[in-house]
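User: I'm curious what two different proteins look like when written out as structure tokens. Can you demonstrate?

Assistant: Sure. I'll show them one after the other, since each token string lines up with its own sequence. Here's the first protein:
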Amino acid sequence: MKKIIYIFLFIAFISGCGSKDEKPKTLKDSTTAPGNVKDISKSDNKVTDTSSKKSASKNELGINEGLPPNFPKEIPQPDNAKCMGYLISNNETHVTFEIKDKKPTEIADFYKKALMVNGYEIIESEGSTFSDKGGMINWKKGNKTVEVTISSNSVVISYN
């Protein structure tokens, strides 16, 4: 049950994230040359020079950008989906994709076929529920498990 709550919270955080076009609040420092700007950290109000620093790969929620380096090749990525990032907790990795052009049932059918071809079996359990609005399906192959959570606009793939 906790796992389901974490996954839906993860989806909610990803969906509620602001635009990447938002500019950080800045303060011109009188000790810098004209045009140079320093960022003010929102958490501790310190001024830090970011003119030569690259942006971090994690956002403020600890979600890493992009696809994780250990994403299994045997788990397909949804067609026409945008990877929103991933989170690693305990022994599981959770990857979120934004989907706009497919119904939840179409995505579920896609994963049922693809994972069965790659040797995974569906685990029938109380955690595996699905309707036309979305749901969760669990698979197992040896000691590997995959959980696919599908909503109307996203897919979260959790694996160990």
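Here's a second, unrelated protein for contrast:
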Amino acid sequence: MSLTLDFIQDDWRVIDGRRAVRYTSVRNNGPLVDVIEDAHPRQLTRREQAVSGGVYTNGQLLWNIPALQMRIGPPKEGDVITDGDGQDWTVLSHAYSAERAWWDLTCINLAIAYDLRDAIDIQRAGLVYDAGGLAVKTFPPDAGSTLYTSLTCRVQEISREEKEERGLMGTSTAYRIYLGRQTPDVGTEDRVVWSRLVGTNRVTTYLERLKYTSPDSIAELPQLECELTL
């Protein structure tokens, strides 16, 4: 009986197409990240699509994850699997197979589902003390850290106005960024680095005063509102 049970629980070892992925357990106080060595992706069957009650969209996969490799705790909705191509797959639902000792995770690639074509970095400043001993907020590469690199998104300008700040007139441009994954740990003091090609020139824009909005549904896009003041 023990040999039979061990064979069933190790059944995932004989499945072709297994690959290593990065698994991010999304938490408000900061994500936990681990490597899953033997994740297996597959397309949803017609039956699984039908069970979704019409929720199924383009850009979904079912990922099989061995329970023994979920070392940071059981999966939950909103967690993210990042595959070897850098694609993020957000967990929509999960079910545990006791017979096979693995998790079935139905996931959506928001970048594919919503055709997101921009990319940003999100950075957090560190404190550097100047010669006079005063603390200066400093972003990478000199200090601080990069929370998210090449995060797939869509950047959209929503308003532009002239405004006075510190006695000087300038132009304030507000942006809304639709994100390809949840980033609940982003704070108002972080900044967005948006680098893109404009014609043949690479242009980099720094956006500040971030405000993160979590969607009502995991299958919808999280948003960042931010500003550029010149």
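A detail about the second structure: The first helix runs from residue 2 to 9.
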